[in-house]
Amino acid sequence: MARLDEALRVEAEDRISLRYATPRRKEGRWRGVIDIHQHLIWGVDDGSPDLDTSLSMARAAAAEGVTHIVCTPHASERYPYRAHLIEQRYAELRGLLEGQIGLSLACDFHMTAENIYDAAANPLRYSIDGKGYLLIEFADASIPGQISDAMFMLQSAGYTLIVTHPERYSALLGQPEMLAEWMRQGSLVQVTAGSLYGRFGKMAEAFSNELLQRNWIHFLASDAHNMTGRRPHLKKGYDYVVQKAGEETARRLCVTNPRAAVDGAPWPAQPEPLGLWEHVPLKFQARKFTGRSSRKVNSGAGEDAPAASKTGFFRSLFAR
Question: Which of 30, 36, 290, 304 is deepest in the core (most CB within 10 A)?
Answer without folding.
Answer: 36
